[in-house]
Amino acid sequence: MSAKRLAFLLLSVFVASGIAQVNQLSLTVGRTFIGTQSLQNDPTSLYPRVHFGDETSFAFNYARLLKSRGMFGLSAELPVAVAPRIDLNTYLNQIPKDIGVLFVTPSVRVNFFHEQSITPWASVGAGWTRWRQSKDLNYFDNSSAPTSVNTYAIQFGAGLDVWPWHRWGIRTEFRDFYSGTPDLNANPSLPAITGRSRQHNFYLGIGAIHRF
After folding, report:
1. Domains held by the chain: number
2. Is residue 133 part of a domain?
3. What is the extent of the structural domain holding 62?
4. Per the domain annotation, does 121 fall within a domain?
5. 198 located within any domain
6. Using one digit for the tens of pLDDT, what is the confidence trace for 138-162?
7. Which of 52, 85, 142, 192 is least surrounded, with the fewest CB atoms within 10 Å of its CB?
8. Residues 6+ apart with CB under 8 A from 182
9. Which region holds residue 167: left if phi is over 0, alpha if psi is between -120 and 50, else beta?
10. What's the rounded Cα separation, in Å, for the pair 28 and 206?
């Protein structure tokens, strides 16, 4: 092998190694938790609350390293979380039977002990929320509520990345998507179901992460 080809090969390996520390993709599977909310329509009821099911959810993430200094690494990331179906439960036949949600929140992430085998991190950002709402009411008949609602969300997150291999690792993450609420009121003649304009949507998941 000529010296020129050897130099080219070494340069290619160096560039590939450098890129390996710049980009990350992750996929986690977990649950979305939304707290029970009180109803305004009938506070004298024996059960004046709406309960949200803790359903299986998914989170995707792309991140790119912007800067590193010492033990810290600063990255731009794009968390995307999906809860396809969240069952709703209340005594009233005035809400959709289920909802779904999509969060897309561009964020900034700080990794501690950057490039080590165990890396805790924290993230903050803001973006877009889309709620899907069933056409069916909780018990019977069709809902007059909109089938989709767009709001915005603020994202706070923390997690731990463990790298047993050079390019592949395990991620555990917890994120709070503090968003606008779905439009649960299926009867426009009644006051707002819960009276809330914003709510916490907690996501907890575990999965794989790949750097390249």
Report:
1. 1
2. yes
3. 23-211
4. yes
5. yes
6. 888 888 778 899 999 999 999 999 9
7. 142
8. 96, 99, 101, 131, 133, 149
9. alpha
10. 5
- CATH number of the domain at 33, please: 2.40.160.20
pTM of the full structure: 0.84
- CA dist 145 to 51, 94, 128, 188, Å? 18, 9, 20, 8
User: Cα separation of 14 and 148, whole Å?
Assistant: 48
Single-letter code of the amino acid located at 22: V
> What pLDDT is attached to residue 10?
37
CA pseudo-torsion sign 27, 102, 195, 123: positive
